[in-house]
């Protein structure tokens, strides 16, 4: 597929095309910001894996290696006031949306100063009141939650905001995903749903996951616009998702973006991904999006080798420095913990009963 | 006229209920004391429910063929004031008066009402004998009693008005209120301590065997001594030798194991100001009698002065009590809770004894020796043999 | 004027919509149609755009409410029947209930569950789900028993910052009537001593309060004085009021239309046994629905759930213990 613009193609008008209308044209600034964020995500996640293997992180580590281009492409097109519900492999998108290396490390390492305060960990982080939803593990559940945020904005008469979430190929099989997509379509919400089709849901290959051949065909079923992106091609992802976000923002209703790519790691750091065939890894699908992006930026002369080295050094330094800081931060104290799941009530009866 | 409830009796351990087979009398009949009113059947036997005193059968709520829980009220006997007094009916007025009143309202047909309300709380499950009365205490009762420092034994005099003759919280409060009419004085700490020990001891099946022991030889021996031991010390020494020969008889049964004594330490009871103290002679089996006298006398003095050091009391395996000093000839005293044996000495009496050689009655000094024991640890035979051995040893006092 | 329990629910929603622009109602057939039970009758017309028909997607319905609540709205979700809320269970217990604890962002939403049995309702239109939801930390579970309570408590539910499972009893919809709606209510989470007594305490909630009151009346013919405690809100639970009542009576029977296993009745008994053992004169008892799905035929249904007569029987046994 070629870069550049082409007429908009919705699934209903032209099946399975690569819908382009030029509104997603990639600028130098956005490409540089996207790449720099991909670099941050990659270096940070490599550190997370190392911390996990050295026993500093408990639970699990879920990496987005190979999916940074797609993830960041959504994150960079969102802005303050939008709603974003990232999923497992969206470290790059999260950082682009405003999450920080510091809070990522705090959540993974269980610092009491992190946004989740040790109550939840790893990828289950967010600041819902700021439009940054904290995913639950039950796939598909965040689709309708984002719908709700957009409905709230509609009630308040706020226009121009977009809601976005991501999901994998496996997550599209859930009832929750289907209900949410249908609901977004019924309500004609300004919503972008990005499906990262990384070929495996944990170990299950797509032929055991769905039978529709191409997930993009689902868009027609919901009556919404479908777009395809090349999942490991940063410029393509930026263009396609840029257009999808712009369309949603312009009131064109929900947008489904499906991107093929390959997860270059296991489901979690305990998984060696031995089920991914070597041939697939060696295919174009298996090319590392970071390498492709670097070539694209250099080719366009949007960045120099010197800059890239200094970026790498700077990110590494920031990650190392932050790890050192967070490791010295206090763990949550069970004695200080509130142990109360209610925001206000429950306290009325347990402590200061006035009767 | 007072009404006496006819109660389904506890007809054996593990019996929770019984079925009415027949009734010997009809309402209005005159009933003599100790005659069977009802025939009831348990899963073990057919038995009678007996009138504790004479009276007129006023009400018969039990229905033939129906089962009733132990403690259930089966009817009422109208009895004389005198009998009511004797049976302690007046101590607990709510039993016959309030309970039926409450339930009779429910629908006229008393047999039906009774049937509806009297249901075994557990059926098919064995319940311990004595499940009624003050032996079952609800958590609420226990909490209230703990608050007042009361024990189950304190409630022995309360007739329960609750299900199965249970003592209810109302019974307790009425009982306590009633006590206020009496003169009340605080019990000494000594009294309270003795009460506690006896209560704990009484949780065991205790029995007593008795043997007359001739003391003439012992008394003659005593006369010849410059340092004189009392009969209790003779007995103590004899018991210690006997126990050193058969220490397991002084063991304690804990669970399914017999705990043998570590050493033959024997205590003796000394009356001291509203109670009893028990000083101990350690290793009494290892010292001749003459060496024990001074120790014995000193311990008696210390005990009477209530200055007994901790090291000289506790840890003994049996106790001697000489109730003879009170002129008593025989008693069944209670062993200390941590002991299985208590040797009692009655007052010596000169009695005629048949002398086979002289073919004549001769006067001998004789005292009744009693051995009270934990029947779980030993039986009458073993207790008897131990007592015989003590008697035998006392017959050769020079060897003690 | 006479107001039914159902009408009180409608009026509470009307007032909430009128007084708070953050409130909207979302559920199946609740718009122009006015709801399967007419609890939103005319509200869509009166408040255009704020009473919305939803697709048959309980999961997404609750998910949408959560997203809106996070953004500061006060959604009321109407489940057509409590039974169907299991299709939205994941969103309720895993997202709504955990949200505040995990993130510090409150999730103020109300899920209305038309609950409990009616003759002919059968296995899938009769369930009582309060115990299921009360099991999960973070959910308030309300079970109003009176017209007055259903009105004030629904307004209270909307005002709360926490997700509320609002169990309204279908049997009471038309059976209960009140002359007027109250201006004042008991404080949040407080149980009510509906009938004072001294011989035994019956703890109940929702429709079972009325069965308990009828049983108490029956037992009063026998000279017994039964105290009836209406929990009103099963979570948080007002343990203090329960214990104070048991302290007066020494005997406890808990009546619940829900199944016995791990239910509200079991919870009440566990609390009394743990915190008020010394108050008890008899082992605490419970009376629940029978351990089968709710049967269809009225003859079976009438025996499946506790009734005044089965409550009275349980009480008689309790009084003899």
For this entry, give a set of tags.
heterotrimer; A: 355 residues; alpha/beta; Rossmann fold; five-stranded parallel beta sheet; two-stranded antiparallel ribbon; 9% strand; disordered N terminus; disordered C terminus; C: 321 residues; 2 domains; 12 helices; 39% helix
Q: How would you characterize this protein structure?
A:
The complex is a heterotrimer of chains A (355), B (400) and C (321). Chain A has 355 residues and is of the alpha/beta class. Chain A has one domain: 3-Layer(aba) Sandwich (Rossmann fold). Chain A is 41% helix and 9% strand. Chain A contains twelve helices and seven strands. In chain A, the strands form two sheets. In chain A, strands 1-2-3-7-6 form a five-stranded parallel beta sheet, sandwiched between helices. A two-stranded antiparallel sheet of chain A has the order 4-5. Chain B is an alpha+beta fold. Chain B is 28% helix and 24% strand. In chain B, helix 8 (231-245) crosses helix 10 (380-394). Chain B is elongated, with a radius of gyration of 27 Å. Chain C has 321 residues and is an alpha/beta fold. In chain C, the strands form three sheets. Chain C has a seven-stranded mixed beta sheet, sandwiched between helices. In chain C, strands 9-11-10-13-14 form a five-stranded mixed beta sheet, with helices on both faces. In chain C, helix 8 crosses helix 12 (308-320). Chain C is globular and about 60 Å long. Chain C starts with a strand and ends with a helix. Chains A and C meet through helix 5, helix 6 and helix 12 of A and helix 3 and helix 4 of C.
């Amino acid at each position: 597929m070629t870069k550049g613009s082409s007429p908009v193609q919705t699934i209903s008008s032209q099946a399975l095309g690569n819908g382009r209308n030029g509104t997603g044209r990639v600028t130098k600034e956005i490409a540089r910001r996207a790449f720099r964020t991909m670099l941050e995500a990659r270096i940070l996640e490599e550190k997370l894996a190392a911390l996990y293997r050295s026993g500093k992180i408990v639970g699990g580590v879920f990496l987005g290696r190979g999916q940074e281009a797609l993830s960041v492409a959504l994150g960079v097109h969102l802005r303050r006031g939008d709603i974003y519900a990232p999923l497992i492999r969206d470290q790059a998108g999260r950082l682009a949306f405003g999450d920080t290396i510091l809070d990522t490390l705090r959540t993974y390492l269980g610092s009491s100063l992190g946004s989740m305060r040790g109550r939840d960990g790893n990828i289950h982080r967010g600041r819902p009141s700021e439009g940054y939803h904290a995913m639950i593990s039950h796939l598909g559940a965040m689709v309708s939650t984002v719908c709700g945020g957009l409905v709230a904005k509609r009630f308040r008469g706020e226009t121009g905001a977009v809601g976005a979430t991501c999901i994998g190929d496996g997550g599209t099989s859930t009832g929750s995903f289907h209900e949410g997509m249908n609901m977004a379509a019924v309500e004609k919400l300004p919503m972008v749903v990005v499906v990262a089709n990384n070929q495996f849901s944990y170990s299950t290959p797509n032929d055991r996951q769905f039978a529709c051949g191409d997930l993009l065909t689902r868009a027609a079923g919901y009556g919404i616009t479908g777009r395809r992106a090349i999942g490991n091609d940063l410029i393509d992802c930026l263009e396609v998702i840029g257009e999808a976000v712009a369309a949603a923002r312009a009131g064109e209703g929900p947008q489904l973006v499906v991107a093929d790519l390959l997860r270059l790691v296991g489901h979690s750091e305990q998984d060696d991904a031995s089920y991914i065939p070597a041939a697939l890894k060696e295919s174009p699908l298996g090319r590392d999006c970071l390498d492709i992006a670097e070539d694209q930026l250099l080719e366009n002369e949007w960045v120099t080798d010197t800059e890239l080295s200094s970026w790498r050094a700077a990110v590494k330094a920031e990650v190392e420095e932050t790890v050192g800081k967070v490791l010295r931060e206090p763990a949550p104290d069970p004695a200080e913990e509130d142990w109360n799941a209610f925001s206000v009530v429950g306290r009325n009866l347990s402590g200061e009963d006035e009767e | 006229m007072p009404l006496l409830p006819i109660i389904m009796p506890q007809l054996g351990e593990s019996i929770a209920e019984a079925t009415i087979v027949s009734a010997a009398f009809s309402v209005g009949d005159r009933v003599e004391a100790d005659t069977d009113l009802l025939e009831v059947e348990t899963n073990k036997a057919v038995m009678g429910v007996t009138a504790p005193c004479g009276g007129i059968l006023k009400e018969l709520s039990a229905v033939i063929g129906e089962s009733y829980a132990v403690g259930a009220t089966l009817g009422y006997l109208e009895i004389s004031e005198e009998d009511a007094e004797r049976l302690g009916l007046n101590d607990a007025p709510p039993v016959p008066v309030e309970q039926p009143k409450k339930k009779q309202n429910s629908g006229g047909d008393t047999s039906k009402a009774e049937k509806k309300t009297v249901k075994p709380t557990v059926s098919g499950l064995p319940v311990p004998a004595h499940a009624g009365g003050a032996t079952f205490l609800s958590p609420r009762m226990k909490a209230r009693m703990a608050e007042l420092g009361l024990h189950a034994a304190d409630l022995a005099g309360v007739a329960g008005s609750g299900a199965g003759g249970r003592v209810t919280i109302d019974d307790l409060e009425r009982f306590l209120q009633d006590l206020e009419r009496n003169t009340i004085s605080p019990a000494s700490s000594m009294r309270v301590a003795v009460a506690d020990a006896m209560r704990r001891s009484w949780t065991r099946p205790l029995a007593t065997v008795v043997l007359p022991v001739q003391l003439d030889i012992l008394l003659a021996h005593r006369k010849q001594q410059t340092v004189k031991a009392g009969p209790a010390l003779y007995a103590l020494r004899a018991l210690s030798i006997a126990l050193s020969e058969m220490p397991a008889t002084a063991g304690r049964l804990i669970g399914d194991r017999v705990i043998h004594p570590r050493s033959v330490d024997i205590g003796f009871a000394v009356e001291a100001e509203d109670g009893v103290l028990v000083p101990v002679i350690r290793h009494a089996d290892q010292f001749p009698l003459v060496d024990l006298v001074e120790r014995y006398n000193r311990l008696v003095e210390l005990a009477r002065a209530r200055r007994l050091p901790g090291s000289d009391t506790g840890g003994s395996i049996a106790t001697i009590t000489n109730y003879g000093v009170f002129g008593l000839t025989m008693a069944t005293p209670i062993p200390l809770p941590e002991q299985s044996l208590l040797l009692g000495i009655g007052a010596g009496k000169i009695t005629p004894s048949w002398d086979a050689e002289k073919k004549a009655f001769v006067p001998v000094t004789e005292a009744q020796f009693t051995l009270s024991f934990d029947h779980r640890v030993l039986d009458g035979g073993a207790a008897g043999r131990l007592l015989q051995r003590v008697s035998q040893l006392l017959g050769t006092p020079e060897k003690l | 004027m006479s107001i039914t329990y159902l009408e009180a629910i409608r009026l509470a929603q009307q007032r909430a919509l009128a007084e708070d622009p953050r409130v909207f109602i979302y559920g199946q057939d609740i718009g122009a149609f006015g709801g399967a039970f007419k609890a939103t009758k005319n509200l869509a017309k009166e408040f255009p755009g704020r009473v919305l028909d939803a697709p048959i997607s309980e999961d997404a319905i609750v998910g949408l409410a959560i997203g809106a609540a996070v953004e500061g709205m006060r959604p009321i979700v109407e489940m057509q029947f409590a039974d169907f809320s299991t299709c939205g269970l994941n969103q309720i217990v895993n997202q709504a209930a955990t949200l505040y604890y995990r993130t510090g962002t409150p999730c103020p939403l109300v899920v209305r569950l038309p609950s409990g049995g009616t003759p002919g309702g059968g296995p899938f239109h009769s369930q009582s789900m309060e115990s299921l939801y009360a099991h999960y930390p973070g959910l308030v579970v309300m079970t109003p028993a009176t017209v007055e309570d259903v009105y004030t408590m629904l307004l209270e539910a909307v005002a709360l910052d926490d997700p509320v499972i609002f169990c309204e009893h279908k049997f009471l919809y038309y059976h209960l009537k009140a002359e007027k709606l109250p201006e004042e209510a008991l404080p949040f989470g407080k149980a009510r001593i509906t009938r004072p007594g001294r011989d035994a305490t019956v703890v109940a909630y929702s429709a079972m309060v009325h069965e308990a009151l009828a049983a108490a009346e029956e037992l009063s013919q026998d000279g017994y004085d039964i105290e009836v405690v209406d929990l009103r809100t099963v979570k948080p639970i007002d343990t203090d009021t329960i214990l104070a009542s048991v302290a007066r009576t020494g005997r406890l029977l808990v009546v619940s239309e829900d199944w016995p296993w791990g239910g509200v009745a079991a919870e009440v008994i566990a609390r009394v046994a743990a915190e008020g053992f010394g108050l008890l004169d008899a082992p605490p008892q419970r009376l629940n629905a029978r351990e089968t799905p709710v049967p269809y035929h009225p003859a079976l249904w009438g025996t499946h759930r506790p009734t005044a007569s089965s409550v009275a029987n349980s009480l008689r046994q309790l009084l003899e213990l």
